[in-house]
């Protein structure tokens, strides 16, 4: 039976941990990255993304645990033998070398013949469309160009893994969109396994095959962008990825969920106790309460519009329901008479879109 | 009216201060072209006789070449020793590192006369007095702390991710050092070298203990000369020294940009 190439496990972290002084930054982390896939490390500042990446690169060594690549243990392997291409947030181009020398550096460390060095560095620069700037020094390049040199320098050595630490955070919004597509295209062309650190959920969801959501040195969830977005494993993930309404709720001993002052339906299994109920703003439909009040198998909540924020292609309604404020997002539409502040409305969403998590006290 | 930073009283004050500081240096120029037998200002008539006399004074000339050779050797040795030392001090973590660093740079704080006496006592027992080797060692005691301090500051402010990038690209530690760390350190090295050269070339106090009839440096020779007679020859020598200093600073400025090198 042919085994799909993409399911082959490539990079594996096995219970790695690290402390800086008394602070246990990563308590114990397990992760398995498949060959050829791009995985995002997503999480708030200080959660340990860079630290984990640096352990993979070998720039710091874990206090315990094992790192393997293709089954080979590299935990104690010196950095220069690891064969990792790394793109730094600050690019870290060598200021005293021109673009070509920067790109050739890694090849020169590898006993590649002179001819091959010339050819491969040239190809790498073509790949990132910088052939015409080969003689420039890094400080004579724009941020986006430096970024692409850094990428070419990391890719030209054909590393077994490409590590990127917030490579887009120093670029302006437009360039960021462009580089996002380019990096993803390059990664897929070369079929290289990549780890992409970011605290930007759009980058993580749009570029990567799978996403690791991290918090305080632990993995909250590891899954495809759709899984992360549609079925967040914890309230933290739901809050961090995408926007949500968060209602205080309660599950009674009979298993009935109550929030915003009324019973609600959810598809999640519930155990009694205080809970957080999360609903994405754009999954809620708004109707004037004068309209037909079909119940169906979803949730209907009555409320009153307390403010309206117009954001162009989107309108945000803040609706007061019971003692909660619920934000609803709608694409700008014309078919319905516009709602106004003070209007009584029905909020409607399906049981599937009702995410319920035990109250974590935060 | 608000008194601004560049208001007139302030400007005049700054001007007077500079004049006070630079007057002796500026006075040396006209005096060096004096035709008089004695140091006097203003000179009664002009001539270049003291420059001629200076270049005919074999003692001065040999002292000058000794100083030049000494300063060059001391500068090269200082850099060769201080670069790896500063690297260890800033890149290798070990216990007592700060203590060691402070110990190495302590001579900066000691009165030179104390250092001179200490060196005299030690060197006498090793037969290093009035030798080139002795002078080199003595000057290194003075210049190394400067070099170490400048280079350590430069290494600390240098972007270390470049070194990390080189390592991930497959460079072994020694390769990283020579191909990334040192080239990026060039401004610091030039600054340290210039300072070492000038400090060594200027050094009088310690050198006085170690020189004799057999070997002497220019500053010491000038000191001895003035002690015996006061004629404008020393002014001519001073002018040449000032020009040499300016020359060194110009080289630094040309290669690196002065503010970039000395002001961090
Ligand atoms: N060398 C170090 N010494 C001490 N503490 C460190 C060191 N490096 C990182 N830390 C700590 O470890 C934690 C994780 O840091 P890390 O840089 O991995 O965060 P991050 O997820 O990359 O955050 P950011 O998004 O801000 O880059 C932080 O609390 C940080 O203060
Ligand atoms: Mg980081």
Describe the protein's architecture and organization:
- The complex is a heterodimer of chains A (362) and B (264).
- Chain A is α+β, with helices and mostly antiparallel strands and 362 residues long.
- Chain A folds into 2 domains: 9-239, Rossmann fold; 245-358, OB fold (Dihydrolipoamide Acetyltransferase, E2P) (Beta Barrel), CATH 2.40.50.100.
- Helices cover 23% and strands 35% of the residues of chain A.
- Chain A has helices at residues 49-57, 99-108, 114-127, 143-155, 173-190, 201-207, 225-230, 235-240; strands spanning 9-20, 23-34, 38-42, 64-69, 72-73, 84-87, 161-165, 193-198, 210-215, 218-223, 245-251, 257-259, 262-264, 273-279, 285-288, 299-310, 314-321, 324-331, 344-349, 355-358.
- By secondary structure, chain B is mostly helical.
- Chain B has a single domain (57-262), classed as MetI-like fold.
- Chain B has 12 helices and no strands.
- The two termini of chain B are 36 Å apart.
- Chain A binds chain B through residues 57-59, 79-86, 88, 90, 92-96, 105-106, 109-110, 153-154, 157, 163, and chain B through 159, 161-162, 164-172, 175, 179-180, 183-184, 186.
- The complex binds adenosine-5'-triphosphate and magnesium ion.
- Residues 20, 25, 43, 45-51, 199 of chain A line the site of adenosine-5'-triphosphate (ATP).
């Amino acid at each position: 039976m042919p085994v799909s190439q993409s399911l082959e496990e490539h990079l594996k972290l096995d219970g790695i941990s690290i402390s800086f002084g008394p602070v246990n930054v990563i308590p114990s982390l397990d992760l398995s990255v498949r060959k050829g896939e791009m995985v995002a490390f997503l999480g708030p500042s200080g959660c340990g993304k860079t630290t984990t990446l640096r352990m993979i690169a070998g720039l710091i060594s874990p206090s315990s645990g094992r790192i393997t690549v293709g089954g080979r243990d590299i935990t104690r392997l010196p950095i220069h033998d690891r064969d990792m291409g790394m793109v730094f947030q600050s690019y870290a181009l060598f200021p005293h070398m021109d673009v070509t020398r920067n790109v050739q550096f890694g090849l020169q460390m590898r006993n590649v013949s002179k001819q091959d060095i010339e050819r491969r560095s040239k190809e790498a620069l073509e790949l990132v469309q910088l052939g015409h700037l080969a003689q420039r020094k890094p400080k004579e390049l724009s941020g986006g160009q430096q970024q692409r040199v850094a990428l070419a320098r990391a890719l030209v050595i054909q590393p077994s893994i490409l590590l990127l630490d917030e490579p887009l955070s120093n670029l302006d919004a437009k360039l960021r969109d462009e580089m996002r597509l380019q990096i993803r295209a390059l990664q897929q062309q070369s079929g290289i396994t990549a780890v992409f650190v970011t605290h930007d959920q759009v980058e993580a969801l749009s570029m990567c095959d799978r996403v690791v959501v991290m918090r305080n040195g632990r993995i909250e969830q590891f899954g495809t962008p759709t899984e992360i977005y549609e079925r967040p494993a914890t309230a933290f993930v739901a809050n961090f990825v995408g926007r949500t309404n968060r209602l205080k709720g309660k599950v009674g001993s009979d298993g009935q969920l109550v929030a915003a002052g009324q019973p609600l339906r959810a598809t999640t299994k519930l155990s009694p106790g205080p809970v957080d109920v999360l609903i994405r703003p754009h999954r809620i439909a708004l109707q004037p309460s004068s309209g037909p009040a079909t119940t169906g198998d979803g949730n209907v909540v009555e409320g009153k519009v307390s403010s309206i924020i117009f954001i162009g292609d989107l309108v945000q309604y803040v609706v007061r329901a019971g003692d909660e404020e619920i934000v609803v997002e709608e694409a700008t539409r014309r078919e319905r008479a516009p709602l106004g502040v003070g209007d009584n409305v029905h909020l409607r969403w399906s049981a599937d879109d009702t995410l319920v998590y035990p109250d974590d006290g935060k | 009216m608000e008194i601004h930073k560049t208001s007139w009283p302030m400007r005049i004050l700054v001007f007077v201060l500079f004049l006070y500081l630079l007057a002796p240096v500026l006075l040396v120029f006209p005096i060096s072209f004096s035709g008089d037998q004695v140091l006097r200002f203003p000179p009664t008539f002009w001539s270049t006789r003291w420059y001629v006399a200076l270049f005919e004074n074999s003692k001065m000339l040999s002292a000058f070449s000794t100083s030049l050779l000494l300063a060059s050797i001391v500068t090269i040795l200082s850099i060769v020793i201080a670069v790896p030392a500063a690297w260890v001090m800033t890149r290798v973590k070990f216990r007592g590192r700060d203590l060691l660093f402070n110990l190495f740079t302590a001579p900066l704080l000691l009165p030179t006369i104390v250092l001179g006496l200490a060196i005299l006592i030690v060197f006498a027992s090793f037969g290093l007095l009035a030798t080139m080797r002795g002078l080199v060692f003595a000057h290194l005691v003075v210049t190394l702390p400067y070099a170490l301090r400048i280079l350590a500051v430069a290494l600390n402010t240098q972007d270390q991710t470049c070194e990390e990038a080189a390592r991930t690209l497959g460079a072994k530690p020694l390769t990283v050092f020579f191909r990334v760390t040192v080239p990026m350190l060039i401004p610091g090295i030039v600054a340290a070298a210039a300072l070492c050269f000038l400090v060594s070339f200027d050094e009088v106090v310690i050198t006085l203990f170690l020189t004799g009839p057999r070997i002497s440096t220019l500053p010491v020779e000038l000191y001895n000369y003035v002690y015996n007679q006061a004629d404008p020859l020393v002014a001519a020598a001073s002018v040449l020294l000032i020009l040499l200093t300016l020359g060194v600073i110009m080289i630094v400025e040309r290669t690196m940009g002065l503010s970039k090198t000395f002001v961090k």
